[in-house]
Design brief:
The protein is an alpha+beta fold. It is built from 2 helices and 7 strands; from the N terminus they run E-E-H-H-E-E-E-E-E. It has helices spanning 28-36, 51-59, and strands at 6-9, 14-17, 71-78, 82-87, 92-97, 104-105, 109-111. The strands form 2 sheets. A 4-stranded mixed sheet has the order 5-4-3-6. A 3-stranded antiparallel sheet has the order 1-2-7, with no helix packed on it.
């Protein structure tokens, strides 16, 4: 299912925004705040995806398009102050300090009810 703003991946139980929440590289805290404060398609329960949800987005990337050259933040923590990221061009995972604001952006998701 899709709307003009998002695509529903019912098998994964998530809706994925069709556009990035930021056109620039941002820190994890900024990305998290953007998603948590997003109102899109009449919904206000948007959030950062878990790393497993980013993998689902990557496997369905042809349904979205418009991915940036940046990695994408996840809500999955790595260590005490870092979070996993994924480059949606090839599915490669990595992690960065949550204060890093270079080369990382975000795409918001919401849990389908």
């Amino acid at each position: 299912t899709s709307s003009s703003d998002y695509v529903e991946l019912t098998a994964a139980g998530i809706a994925v925004a069709k556009a990035d929440a930021s056109s620039a590289a941002i820190s994890w805290t900024s990305a998290n705040n953007l998603c948590e404060n997003l109102t899109l398609g009449g919904h206000t329960d948007w959030r950062l995806p878990a790393i497993e949800e980013l993998a689902v987005i990557y496997s369905n990337k042809n349904r979205f398009g418009n991915f940036s050259q940046f990695d994408y933040w996840s809500s999955t923590q790595y260590g005490s102050s870092s979070y996993y990221t994924m480059w949606l061009k090839d599915g490669e995972t990595s992690y960065f300090s949550k204060t890093n604001s270079n080369d990382v952006t975000c795409r918001c998701v919401r849990t389908l009810q």
